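Below is how a single chain appears once it has passed through the pipeline. First comes the sequence as given, then the structure the pipeline wrote out for it. We keep one example in the README because the format questions we get most often are answered faster by looking than by reading.
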Amino acid sequence: MERRYRLTRSRDYARVQDGGNSWTHRLVVLTAAPNGLEISRFGFIASRRLGNAVKRNRAKRLLREAVWESMASVSAGWDCVLVARAPLPGATLAETKVGIVQLLKAARLWSPSPRRAGRAAGGSLSQPGARV
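Resulting structure:
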């Protein structure tokens, strides 16, 4: 995921979590707040409650990949923080993507018509031997 689509500063995370609205799914929690920009940005959190570093990193990789594949249909002008929940490290990419799309639809951030080119065809976590 390109840097311009990521939340990188702790104050951005704090602003979204303090002033944003939240929606929950079995695998992930979405918190969103308007950002006044022409793009939407995403941040990913996996706490120690998920398990060791391997599980936390897998959870964040799944979230990043699922969001990146869905970016073309996300409404512009929002900062979103996705917090991994306990079952996420054991989920597949397809399950993760379905959960994120459901959350984006609930938050009314999902527009079915793509507004920009999405990810080019290539590797993903669902393919054996894929590197992330």
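The chain has one domain: 3-106.

See the next section for the split statistics.
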